[in-house]
């Protein structure tokens, strides 16, 4: 398989994988992102995987294709600038205000406290928190993608999963539950909020805080490779 391109009918065999990856990624994206766009990006990744797969890397084609498909989707989102610049600026202001208040209060600030600092409505802050979480999630996904796809090795993939699982265990209980429900159980923000008894935007805060910790861990892993 490493010395020829796969035939069209063989590519079709893996189209369900493209849709599966797109469906999982859609859970982390805002409503305006189109599922069909993700599938289109993924098909390009699958086609590229079929051309470049090397069986000598000791990795299954399905594993290799998964990372190329997901990588193509993330690249496509970045190229399409899925998060408009004005919104990115608002998110930066929100994150700066959150860090300042957290330093003063010794805890995550409430929506009302953030609204007071930013001079806006609590409802607007809630929406921004969700947007900020989605942006941080995509950044986190990209880092995992870059490490895993660079190695193209199943043993390395398993080691990465183990390291991240150990990192998750170090989180506070509520953060750990939120991450587990979001990434492993596939629950959305509203469903997690119902489990934890908090709002969607509060779940966004918890996940964003946890992802910041995990992202630092990923940076350490990357520096050790």
Instruction: Categorize the overall geometry.
Output: globular
Tell me about the biggest sheet? none
User: Distance between the terminal alpha carbons, to the nearest Å?
Assistant: 28 Å
CATH top level of one domain? Mainly Alpha
> Which structural class should the secondary elements be placed in?
mainly alpha
Can you tell me the CATH architecture of one domain?
Answer: Orthogonal Bundle
Helix content: over 70%
**What's the total helix number?**
11
Total DSSP E strands: 0
Radius of gyration: 19 Å
Find the CATH topology of one domain.
Rna Polymerase Sigma Factor, Chain: A
Describe the structure.
The protein has helices at residues 8-13, 15-26, 35-52, 61-79, 85-105, 111-118, 122-151, 154-169, 173-184, 189-196, 200-224. The chain is mainly alpha-helical. The chain has a domain at 1-82: RNA polymerase sigma factor, region 2, helix turn helix motif (Rna Polymerase Sigma Factor, Chain: A, Orthogonal Bundle). It starts with 7 loop residues before the first helix and ends with a helix. The mean pLDDT is 81.
